[in-house]
Design goal:
Blueprint: H1 2-14, H2 33-38, E1 43-54, E2 58-69, E3 85-94, E4 98-107, E5 115-130, E6 143-145, E7 154-156, H3 160-167, E8 170-172, E9 181-183, E10 189-205, E11 209-223, E12 239-243, E13 250-254, H4 259-265, E14 274-287, E15 298-308, E16 318-329, E17 339-352, H5 356-359, E18 361-362, E19 369-370, E20 390-407, E21 410-426, E22 438-449, E23 453-461, E24 466-472
Antiparallel strand pairs: 1-2, 2-3, 3-4, 4-5, 5-10, 6-7, 8-9, 10-11, 11-14, 12-13, 14-15, 15-16, 16-17, 17-20, 18-19, 20-21, 21-22, 22-23, 23-24
Main location: membrane
Pfam families: DUF5982, Omp85
InterPro entries: Bac_surfAg_D15, DUF5982, TPS_OM_transporter
Length: about 475
């Protein structure tokens, strides 16, 4: 947490004495009377075991907890902020070789000033990261050969599971392999390890505007599971069970060349081995949301610029531009105050020596968004199914809180959330148009604990796949 301590020390130097008083905020950010009545005072904690579900990472097990300090009703920002301070920690592993460990801190109005401080340090590993290529070529239907045989019928447009099954058959080996057969089961898979530290400082001004500065430091390690042609090894990471196309019996088989390796050897990608990626994020936002963890009304409009340079110790040079809008609206506030329509639209453009793994990373004032596909964007498509220099996507949710009750002095609210997602990628901003978007839809349940902790259960479906997710927090 050295980075977090430095961030706190740096924040002290920014505070002028005359700023350590309440500032004028937009009335749209004030909590409703009902929410204000239920808001707790002082310290409290929320913690729960994590039982996550993700089609790529598998089933996850661990724990996540938060320690909150809400202050009291005389605090200058009590009616506007979700909490004064929040300390968080989580640790979990999954059945498909993913693990995540994180410590976080957040103070929306640090020491009763106009400044907000957020910090985190985390370590993550995902042995089942997905790569399908870069740019508009990934928008084509997935194709495969019947039973993975070179002479098999070429099939296109089938469900994702059918393709996975076909790739699990063994086939004749590539030239140079010491084995007669190989498997394509890991064709779209690679391992990604990352250690990341980040903090951000932003200031509220003119009632609802915020500027933000956020340094971020990461060290990434990437490897594939291709069997090394030309030599023999007993490392089981290079073998997977593969079925015989005639009998259907499975046996341990060396992996063939992955899509990632193929594109690297063709010179199509950067960052094949990982490396250091150090960002400086700068942003400007207009934020009128009434309650950030679970808004009823208001909007967030933001634009930000991210720079990565070798001068900061990075192994690459590139830039990113990101913009998004989040909108929350109660269509019938007097008759049906528990119904909220939530929507989001976002776009990112990246240029320069961008590592393939960084195309998927979109930085927002609210937190990172990873890839087009998966829980945070297109919930019916696989995680990071689409990445490219230009990414655009949107989401629409109807959030209906249909039940609220107290349990052991804890406030619990249940919310039903049907949703619709859309998005696509382009090779550059000159290609942007209104055609070729991918769509997914589904429904979910939110369990809202003491107003600020949201447990998510979503089921999404697309023409390629259907997926179930369990996580913490709204996706936007």
């Amino acid at each position: 947490m050295i980075l977090l301590v430095l961030a706190i020390c740096f924040s002290f130097s920014l505070f002028a004495e005359d700023e350590k008083v309440a500032i004028e905020l937009s009335e749209s950010k004030r909590l409703s009377p009902d929410e204000l009545q239920e808001k707790r005072e002082g310290w409290y904690a929320t913690g729960l075991p994590v039982f996550s579900q993700d089609p790529v990472r598998g089933q996850g097990y661990g724990a996540r907890g938060y320690l909150y300090q809400n202050g009291n009703r005389k605090s200058p920002y009590f009616e506007f902020q979700p909490y004064m301070y929040r300390f968080g920690g989580q640790a979990y592993k999954t059945t498909n070789g993913a693990a995540y460990y994180e410590l976080t801190f957040d103070s929306p109005f640090l020491f009763d000033t106009a400044y907000r401080l957020k910090g985190s340090i985390n370590y993550s590993v995902n042995k089942n990261s997905q790569y399908f290529g870069i740019g508009t070529s990934t928008l084509h239907d997935l194709t495969y050969r019947d039973k993975n045989q070179p002479t098999g019928a070429l099939i296109s447009g089938s469900p994702f599971g059918d393709r996975e099954d076909a790739l699990s058959y063994r086939r004749p080996s590539d030239p140079g392999s010491p084995f007669p057969y190989q498997s394509n089961r890991e064709y779209n898979t690679y391992e990604f390890r990352s250690t990341t530290g980040t903090f951000s400082i932003d200031k509220t001004f003119a009632k609802a505007f915020r500027w933000i500065v956020a340094p971020e430091f990461s060290q990434n390690i990437i490897r594939t599971f291709d069997y090394p042609n030309g030599r023999v090894t007993n490392n089981q990471d290079y073998f997977t069970p593969a079925k015989d196309p005639n009998t259907g019996w499975a046996s341990s088989t060396p992996n063939g060349k992955s899509k990632l390796t193929q594109d690297y050897q063709k010179g199509l990608i950067n960052g094949f081995h990982g490396g250091n990626v150090n960002y400086l994020h700068l942003g400007l936002a207009y934020d009128t949301r009434d309650f950030e963890p679970d808004p009823d009304s208001g909007m967030l409009l933001e634009v930000n610029y991210s720079n990565v340079s070798r001068k900061s110790g990075s192994d690459f040079e590139f830039q990113k531009f990101f913009a998004q809008g989040k909108f929350f609206y109660m269509p019938f506030p007097k008759l049906f105050e528990e119904l909220v329509i939530a929507s989001r639209a976002a776009v990112q453009y990246a240029k320069g020596e961008v590592p393939f793994s960084e195309y998927r990373y979109m930085w927002s004032i609210d937190g990172a968004i990873n890839g087009l596909g998966g829980l945070q964007t297109l919930r019916g498509y696989r995680q990071e199914r689409f990445i490219g220099p230009m990414i655009g996507f949107g989401n629409v949710e109807i959030r209906w809180r249909f039940g609220t009750f107290k349990f052991w002095d804890q406030l619990v609210t249940l919310s039903l959330v049907p949703f619709y997602d859309f998005g696509r990628v382009w090779d550059g901003y000159h290609d942007i148009g209104t055609q070729g978007y991918k769509f997914s839809y589904g429904s979910g349940l939110r369990i809202i604990w003491n107003q600020a902790t949201v447990i998510l259960i979503d089921y999404g479906k697309s023409r390629e796949d259907s997926q179930l997710f369990i996580d913490v927090g709204h996706i936007f």
